[in-house]
Amino acid sequence: MFSNIHVLYIYNWKELNTEYALGAKDAAELVSLLMEKKGITKLNEVLDELDGIYAFTYESGNHVYACRDVLGVAPLWYSTKDGFTSAPERKDILNKGLEAEDVKELDPRTILNYNIKTGKAELLRRDFFSIIPEHRKSEDELIRELTGLVINAVSKRLPDEKAGILFSGGIDSTLIAQICQKLGVPFVCYTAALECGGMKEAEDLVYAKKVAERLNFPLKTKVIKLYEAEKRLKELVPLIEDSNVVKVGVGLTFHVACELARKDGIKFIFSGLGSEEIFAGYERHIKSGDLNKECLAGLLRMHERDTYRDHTITAHYGMQLLVPFLDKNLVGYSLKIPAEHKIAGGQNKVIIRKVAEGLGVPKEFAQRKKRAAQYGSNFDKAIDKLAKKAGLKSKSAYLDRFYSRNPSLGAMFSSGKDSAYALWVMQKQNYPIRCMITMKSRNPDSYMFHTPNIDLASLQAKAMQIPIIFQETAGVKEEELLDMKKAIERAKKEYCIEGVVTGALYSQYQRERIEKICYSLGMKVFSPLWHMDQEKEMRQLVAEGFEVVLSSIAAEGLDRKWLGRKINAKDIDNLVKLKKKIGINIAGEGGEFESLVLDGPMFRQRIDVVDSEIVEESENVARFVVKKAKLVKK
């Protein structure tokens, strides 16, 4: 029997009801009867048959099972502190007096099994989507099949009343509106933007009006002033329980548009969320060596980044969020479309743009370049202006005034620039770093872990005044991951961390393995530098006051003169020249060099190297070995 239904919209419940002859009166009864028919041992099988979004708990004997749809559109938070409790929003549980570390978000790829008698809980893994085998079909065949899937994804979600569409004039919202129009169903498009002296009219507003006029879409717009933006932020940030600048910027657009729609009595609203991931709409997709693997990785993190924010906003206005691009059948098909049909000739999302053109969307609109919502609406500029007006150095500092309860993190820390910079980025985004986790590998050629001067991580931790956990490993490929899991489990137990931040820049090998471990422990993973331009990263390090020295070199064009001295802007210019000349990775991603951070904006003291030596193996292969170092005042 159901213990608690938080969200339950099953689009194929009538078909399942007929197939199994269950005689259910609605989706809730269907799921309950299907569970009884198949038995709790087949829970995974039952969930795989459901097409829709859901978050619920199901009681069977002495056990409570917590489940949510595998993409995480419907949210579910829980606590096993002093018994089991669950809710769709984190604050619902925190308001009962529990501490933040006692409340966890259920990973959509797991089922929680809570034993009522013993109070123990375990996470059971669920299968996710696959990117293989890729479709071996002509482009015409792919477009035809994809068109059918997109139309079906929209049509199955259509309510029996007028729906709203969050409308930016971009390819995704335009395609949804075009399908609704072709199906002859009533809808209204809603666009939100900021108006402020000295700013150009918001790009999304310009396009929304242009597209709506050309295609005869009903459109309503809401343009707010700067002072209104501040009032809304004070409400929005605690509502979404996050002060991340990007999340808030997108959320503000969503918040204003949803309020406008709700005043019209709209109860169901479409969003184009998910299209960027399944059809490769981000810059990181273009840079990826394995495009569909990157698409899959993005979907794995979407519940952390997007769906919870969007759910809390729509729920606040008593509305249901409709996300056709996160349709189970559409996602499964799209992840197997070969990369050349997604990115070609400098354009992204190629195939879905062709689908749109085939459905009558004019080429100038179908081919419009993506503009992130926070920029296309001018709301990111609003946050920036408000931060400066308040005399604060950053947008994060400004938003932190409204909410400062982001997940506590442990930082995977190697002593080098990437892990240090990732730690700093998350701190700037108002995420508390409770501890650092450092792996000490006895294998200098470890696939996973940085080894030069790793013992200095303890001094770096003291300089930042952050506790550190060391974990030794023999450094045997794959086996070393078991040691890393021990370290993360220890950090979770000792410092109550809810997630891990990594400095992964381009290493799919490194990021995938950390994510696998964290997901098995029910923890979040943040990789804020992922696919950042390498030159940009190096220049930002210098600009933000990091003192970085190279601790080893192993590439043509580099010699001992590069070791042990602070990297400056001129050095980066030289690395750029070496890239053009011999193809070197500017950030050392190809193993050309390793680094050591002696100071940075989060350091309370800096590290002074007292004694060191350079060990040369050849002209272009050498190490900077620190024999003695100390902390000094800045």
Number of helices: 24
- pLDDT below 50 for ≥5 consecutive residues: which ranges? none
What is the average of the pLDDT values? 93
- Backbone structural class: alpha/beta
Task: Give the helix proportion (percent range).
Answer: 40-55%
What is the count of structural domains? 3
State the CATH superfamily name of the largest domain.
HUPs
Strand order of the largest sheet: 1-2-3-7-8
CATH architecture of the largest domain: 3-Layer(aba) Sandwich
Q: What separation lies between the terminal Cα atoms?
A: 63 Å
CATH topology type of the largest domain: Rossmann fold
User: Tell me about the biggest sheet?
Assistant: 5 strands, antiparallel
Alpha carbon gyration radius: 26 Å
- Into which percentage range does the β-strand content fall? 15-25%
CATH class of the largest domain: Alpha Beta
Shape: globular
> Total number of β-strand segments?
22
Primary descriptors:
634 residues, Glutamine Phosphoribosylpyrophosphate, subunit 1, domain 1, Rossmann fold, 5-stranded parallel sheet, 22 strands, 40% helix, globular
What topology emerges from the helices and strands here?
Layout: E1 2-10, H1 13-20, H2 27-38, H3 43-49, E2 52-60, E3 63-68, E4 77-79, E5 85-87, H4 90-94, E6 104-105, E7 110-115, E8 121-125, H5 139-155, E9 163-166, H6 171-182, E10 187-194, H7 203-215, E11 219-224, H8 226-240, H9 245-263, E12 268-270, H10 275-278, H11 283-287, H12 291-316, E13 320-322, H13 328-334, H14 350-358, H15 363-366, H16 373-376, H17 379-389, H18 395-399, E14 409-412, H19 417-428, E15 433-441, H20 457-464, E16 468-473, H21 480-495, E17 499-501, H22 508-520, E18 524-526, H23 534-543, E19 547-554, H24 569-582, E20 593-599, E21 605-618, E22 621-633
Parallel strand pairs: 9-10, 9-12, 10-11, 12-13, 14-15, 14-17, 15-16, 17-18
Antiparallel strand pairs: 1-2, 2-3, 3-7, 4-5, 4-6, 7-8, 19-20, 19-22, 21-22
